[in-house]
Model the fold of this input.
Amino acid sequence: MTALPAPAPVVTPETAAFWAATHRGEFLVPRCNACGEHYWYPRALCPFCHSTETALVPASGRGTVYSYTVVRKTGGDYAKATPFVLAFVELDEGPRMMTNVITDDVEAVRIGDRVEVVLSATGDGAALPRFRPAT
Done:
């Protein structure tokens, strides 16, 4: 398996705390203090109740493959990393996020598989949350 590129994310004032946490090896998800919902992607406004009473909280780092595809042909930096798995993972906390499933056997990935987070360093003060089959 060829390692996937880990491009540096665009860090905004709204997402800076999330990316700094990934750099420290922490996976946090936003949670609304008003309605109690976890959501994805990190932002200050709750998409459920529109409250700004939100916070980043520690996540389990575990989830389930909700949907996926095996990318076999692409361009740019990812062209040399094919085939790889692009997936939606449903976190145990509830939200779904688009990510990669890191595995040597892309043909073995299935909907419903349990996965756990792996933080891939970008070399630029952040790490990308990706997932691998849970052990």
About this structure: The chain has a mean pLDDT of 95. The two ends are 19 Å apart (CA to CA). The longest helix spans residues 16-23.
